[in-house]
Design goal:
Elements (H helix, E strand, L loop, with lengths): L22 E6 L4 E5 L1 H7 L8 H4 L8 H11 L3 E7 L13 E10 L5 E10 L5 H22 L6 E5 L10 H7 L3 H4 L13 H14 L2 E8 L5 E13 L2 E11 L1 H19 L6 H12 L6 E6 L11 E10 L10 E5 L4 H8 L3 E4 L15 H6 L2 E11 L2 E11 L7 H13 L1 H24 L10 E7 L10 E7 L5 E8 L4 H20 L4 H16 L4 E12 L2 E9 L5 E3 L5 E3 L4 E2 L13 E5 L4 E5 L11 H14 L5 H11 L8 E7 L20
Parallel strand pairs: 20-23
Antiparallel strand pairs: 1-2, 1-5, 3-4, 4-5, 6-9, 7-8, 8-9, 10-11, 10-15, 11-12, 13-14, 14-15, 16-26, 17-18, 18-19, 19-20, 20-24, 21-22, 21-25, 25-26
Length: 694
């Protein structure tokens, strides 16, 4: 007869009885189809054809009345034990009293709706040994029935038997076929050598718990014979006699396909949840990267592709805006502009709009694969495969996802490439919205930048400005900054925020800023008086519109210090940071916001500023966070600015933006001034301006 799998027409796990020293036969259904016969029974009765009714399969048995006993066991469910019975299969056995057998019959269940009979057949050697022999047979029968009943509660592909403490107790042909281990190799605890090293702690941790719960159900990676590691579900239940566990009987089934599908489903769900409320294209793609790392990939990068008509330009200039690598494989390639030649795999993915998938020896990649600036990382991390997957949004290639696996890990396979494509397809609606958002925001930002002027060039003084749009709004906003020189050589600094975040707010912002320029140029007067006149114009021209503002006049130095005269209209206070790293807010001249108070006087204040100090004006988006007291945000800004007191003014501005935990729901405008050291002559009056600057 063939292998155990071939002898099991019902697909159930009878190979646990293959090595039994007694004959084991199983039948199924009311016609008692022969579904199993082990090797010992074959020695007794000869080879038999499975699938036939037992009366036909054992038609040469002279004692035909035995079949009626099988009917009785199936019908009543009562077990039956018979002693010293002759079995005569033609010429193979004799009924002369010298070849007699003890037979036990028990009802079993082959499945939810089909019952059968399990027969255990053992030779006897005479009346003198009958009692001990029968006890042994009864023990075997009970053990086999218990094993079989336990196995009915689990699925199977490989069947194994363990001692109560987890040592493999009997050979398992299925295990040997699956893992390639021999019986001496996997006996005892040797089977653990087939478990993936990363999964061993889980096996050891779950086994004691399984002993308490009476069931073991665990997925591990097993090293299969000639096929690497695959996910296998191991299930086991105890065989219990007299309330004690005498052994465990279990199964292993290859579930690699099911495991991969489940992981893909989870990743798709995670990707959908992670990108549900995100507006920016870079954020959507960035979240997808974090979902994929490190469960699927060792390295991933996103390259934003510019709009183009027809074929990709030569060279294709893309922006690497995010690059993430698994811990221990860094440093990752840095964001920035990257140029791709026409024959690179990257351009191939963009041109064909199809993924490019390559596998190669670790660290030995073709020159056209690694993006410029990433080749050293590919080499040091021993990359073994890459997938370049185009991100197509509304018919255009918006980006390219660069996925990498390294070292001895299983290279990227077609299923992984398919998963990446499915994740991008799954997020298409979000990507489409993000793409439209980004294009609209890009236009709005360009318009905003046109409305915001560059700071003037003042000898010995450094002035820099920053504007960061809201991450969640596509319209231009009402934040502004401005800086210009007066005819007398003084420098005007101003910053403000018009209420609202739409085109109307931007228009009002532009008009207020231009009016403020004209009012400041019109006459030499304190900043508070200028804001009073601006407030009159605001209330007359814009009705219920409001705005915050700071207007400051900087001149000097006088007696070694710079003089700042300023007025604040409902705006966060300016921050002064000395060269020694001491920061304080200028909290004088506080006045109502613009659009409120009619023609009421507004105050001004004067502050003396030390050389090499830094003066910072900013809008509330830098310091306000939902649910947080404004004082907390101001204190946080002061601490960060103090630590950057001696940084170059551009680095100071960039780092302040980078370090502050910004809510990103509002625009941010900043203007920073780095005061020079004391000069031999005052700066005021040193600049020659045209007679009519307007």
């Amino acid at each position: 007869m063939g292998e155990a799998a071939d002898r099991t027409l019902s697909g159930l796990p009878f190979d646990v009885f293959d090595s039994a020293p007694v004959g084991v036969v199983a039948t199924g259904g009311p016609d008692h189809r022969l579904v199993y016969a082990n090797a010992t029974f074959q020695e007794i009765a000869g080879e038999r054809v499975l699938g036939l009714p037992i009366r036909e399969a054992l038609g040469d048995l002279h004692q035909q009345d035995y079949f009626g006993l099988i009917d009785w066991v199936l019908e009543t469910g009562e077990p039956l034990s018979l002693r010293e019975l002759p079995l005569d299969f033609g010429d193979r056995t004799r009924a002369d009293g010298q070849r007699r057998y003890s037979i036990s019959m028990s009802k079993i269940w082959l499945g939810a709706d089909e019952a059968g009979v399990l027969l255990v057949v053992a030779k006897t050697a005479g009346q003198a040994r009958r009692g001990g022999e029968l006890d042994s047979i009864a023990e075997e029968r009970r053990r086999f029935v218990l094993r079989y009943q336990s196995l009915m509660r689990v699925e199977t592909q490989v069947v194994w038997v363990m001692a109560p403490l987890g040592q493999v107790a009997e050979p398992s042909p299925g295990w040997e076929q699956m893992t390639g281990q021999s019986w001496p190799e996997y006996s005892g605890e040797g089977w653990l050598r087939a478990v993936h090293p990363d999964d061993l702690p889980g096996v050891r941790d779950t086994w004691p718990e399984a002993r308490l719960q009476g069931r073991w159900d665990h997925v591990v990676r097993l090293k299969l014979a000639g096929d690497g590691y695959r996910h296998v579900r191991t299930r086991a239940v105890p065989v219990i006699e007299n309330g004690e566990v005498v052994e465990w009987v279990g199964t292993c089934a290859d579930v690699e396909h099911e495991w991969q599908e489940e992981q893909r489903r989870k990743l798709l769900d995670q990707a959908a949840a992670a990108t549900a409320d995100i507006g920016g294209l870079d954020e959507v793609l960035g979240m997808l990267c974090h979902v994929l790392m490190p469960s699927v990939l060792d390295g991933i990068g996103i390259y934003l592709v510019p709009d183009f008509d027809g074929q990709p330009p030569e060279p294709l200039v893309a922006e690497r805006f995010v690059s993430i690598v698994r811990e221990g494989l860094g440093p990752e390639p840095q964001p920035g502009t990257v140029r791709f030649g026409p024959r690179t795999a990257f351009v191939q993915a963009v041109r064909t709009r199809r993924p490019v998938h390559r596998i190669f020896p670790p660290g030995d990649f073709p020159p056209d694969l690694a993006p410029p600036g990433a080749d050293e990382w590919f080499r040091s991390a021993k990359a073994n495969s890459i997938a370049l997957v185009p991100v197509i949004v509304d018919g255009a290639v918006a980006a390219v996802l660069d996925a990498v696996i390294c070292g001895s890990r299983e290279p990227i396979g077609p299923a992984d490439v398919d998963l990446l494509g499915r994740m991008l397809d799954h997020a298409h609606a979000h990507l489409s919205n993000a793409m439209r958002f980004q294009r609209t925001q890009r236009v709005a930002l360009a318009l905003q930048n046109c409305l915001l002027p560059d700071p003037p060039d003042v000898p010995e003084m450094e002035i820099t400005a920053r504007y960061r749009p809201s991450a969640t709004a596509v319209e231009i906003g009402g934040d502004w900054y401005d800086s210009f020189l007066l005819p007398d050589g003084a420098t005007i600094l101003t910053i403000g925020d018009v209420g609202g975040h739409d085109l109307a707010a931007a228009v009002t912002m532009s008009q207020l800023r231009n009016m403020l320029r004209g009012l400041a140029m019109d006459r030499r007067e304190p900043p508070g008086d200028i804001l009073r006149r601006l407030n009159v114009a605001t209330e007359a021209l814009y009705g219920d519109g409001t705005a915050t503002c700071i207007l400051a006049r900087l001149e000097g130095p006088e007696n070694g210090e710079w003089r700042l005269e300023y007025s604040v209209a409902g705006h966060p206070p300016p921050l002064l940071v000395t060269y020694e790293g001491e920061g304080r807010f200028l909290e004088g001249a506080l006045n109502p916001l613009l659009g409120y108070g009619n023609d009421q006087p507004r105050t001004s204040a004067v502050a003396m500023l030390p050389p090499r100090g830094t003066l910072l004006f900013y809008t509330d988006g830098l310091v306000e966070r939902p649910g947080e007291n404004l004082d907390d945000g101001l204190e946080r800004l002061r601490r960060h600015a103090e630590s950057l007191a001696r940084a170059p003014i551009d680095d100071f501005s960039d780092q302040v933006l980078a370090r502050m935990p910004i809510a990103r729901k509002d625009d941010i405008a900043m203007i920073a001034v780095r005061l020079p050291e004391i000069q031999d002559r005052p700066l005021t009056g040193s600049i020659k301006l045209p007679d009519d600057p307007l």
